Q: What sequence folds into this?
C-alpha cells in the first residue's frame, strides 16, 4: 500500500469522527505521523496536501558518498600535515578549499587508508591496586585545593605517616618540590610503589623525578575512589581537624604553615589511628625533636 492511500484513509476515518488512537490502530502508523497528515489536510485540503506531499518526494537526492576527489584531498592533507587530527583537517578543508565536512566523516575517510587509533584508552590496564606489607612499600600522594592555596599531601598506607606541603600553585614544578622534600624528610629511602592521580601536577617535572624515589609510579584510574582511599581519607582529616573547610589566599600562607605543623605533630604523636593495631598514633617511638625536624613540609 502506497503512502498516499493511508493519508486518504486517515482523512476519511477522521471525517467519520474516529479518534486519533483508533486511526493509529487501524493504519499501524505512529501517532505523530497521523497527526501531521490530518493537520496538513485541514490546512491545504486533502487534494492540496496530497499534491504537496507527492512533490516533496520527487527530484534527485543529494549524494551521500563523498566524491573521490575530496577523499584524495583529505589523504593529501594527512600526508602534508604529519599526525594531523580530524579537526585540523576540517580546518584546512574549509580555509583552503571552502569544503565543509564533519569530523566523524573525515575520520571515516581516513580509516580507508590508515589505522585510526585513539591515544586515550579509557580501560587501559594499570595493574592491581597495590597493597603494603611493610613500611615504605606504597606511598599515595594527592592535593587539596584550598582556594588560592594548595596542599600537597602524601601518606604511607602501612604506617599511616603523612606529609603536607602548602604551595601557591598547582603545577608539576610545585609537585616536584613536594616530592623531593617529602621523600627526603618523611618517606626516607626508596619505595616500591608511588601512586598518584593523572592530573597535570603529577606530570612533567614530577613524573620525571618520581622514578628516582620509587620502583614504579602508578597512576590511579579515574572515578575509582577505592584506589586512592588512604590519601583521600587523610585529606578529609586534614580538612576536618586541621585547616577547616574554608578557602584561603596566598597571603594566608604565613599563618597556615604553623597550623600545618601543629596538625602534623598532633596527627603523628597524639591522635590514635583506628587502622593501626593496637590503636595508637602513627609515630609513638620517635621523639618530639625528630618530629620538628620532619614536619617541615609547610615551608
A:
Amino acid at each position: 500500500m502506497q503512502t498516499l492511500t493511508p493519508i486518504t484513509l486517515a482523512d476519511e476515518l477522521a471525517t467519520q469522527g474516529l479518534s486519533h488512537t483508533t486511526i493509529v490502530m487501524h493504519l499501524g502508523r505512529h501517532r505523530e505521523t497521523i497527526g501531521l497528515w490530518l493537520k496538513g489536510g485541514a490546512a491545504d485540503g486533502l487534494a492540496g496536501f496530497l499534491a504537496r506531499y507527492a512533490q516533496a518526494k520527487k527530484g534527485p537526492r543529494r549524494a551521500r558518498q563523498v566524491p573521490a576527489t575530496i577523499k584524495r584531498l583529505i589523504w593529501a592533507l594527512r600526508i602534508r600535515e604529519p599526525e594531523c587530527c580530524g579537526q585540523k583537517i576540517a580546518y584546512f578543508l574549509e580555509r583552503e578549499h571552502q569544503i565543509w565536512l564533519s569530523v566523524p566523516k573525515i575520520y571515516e575517510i581516513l580509516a580507508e587508508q590508515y589505522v585510526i587509533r585513539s591515544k586515550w584508552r579509557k580501560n587501559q590496564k594499570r595493574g592491581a591496586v597495590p597493597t603494603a606489607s611493610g613500611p615504605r612499600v606504597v606511598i599515595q600522594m594527592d592535593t587539596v585545593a584550598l582556594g588560592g592555596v594548595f596542599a600537597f599531601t602524601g601518606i604511607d598506607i602501612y604506617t599511616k605517616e603523612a606529609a603536607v606541603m602548602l604551595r601557591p600553585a598547582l603545577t608539576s614544578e610545585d609537585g616536584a618540590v613536594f616530592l623531593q622534600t617529602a621523600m627526603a624528610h618523611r618517606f626516607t629511602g626508596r619505595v616500591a610503589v608511588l601512586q598518584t592521580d593523572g592530573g597535570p601536577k603529577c606530570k612533567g617535572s614530577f613524573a620525571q623525578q618520581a622514578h628516582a624515589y620509587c620502583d614504579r609510579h602508578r597512576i590511579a584510574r579515574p572515578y575509582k575512589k577505592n584506589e586512592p582511599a588512604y590519601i583521600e581519607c587523610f585529606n578529609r582529616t586534614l580538612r576536618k581537624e586541621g585547616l577547616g573547610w574554608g578557602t584561603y589566599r596566598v597571603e594566608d600562607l604565613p599563618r597556615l604553615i604553623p597550623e600545618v605543623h601543629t596538625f602534623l605533630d598532633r596527627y603523628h604523636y597524639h591522635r590514635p589511628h583506628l587502622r593501626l593495631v593496637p590503636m595508637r598514633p602513627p609515630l609513638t617511638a620517635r621523639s618530639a625533636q625528630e618530629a620538628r625536624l620532619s614536619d617541615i613540609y609547610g615551608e
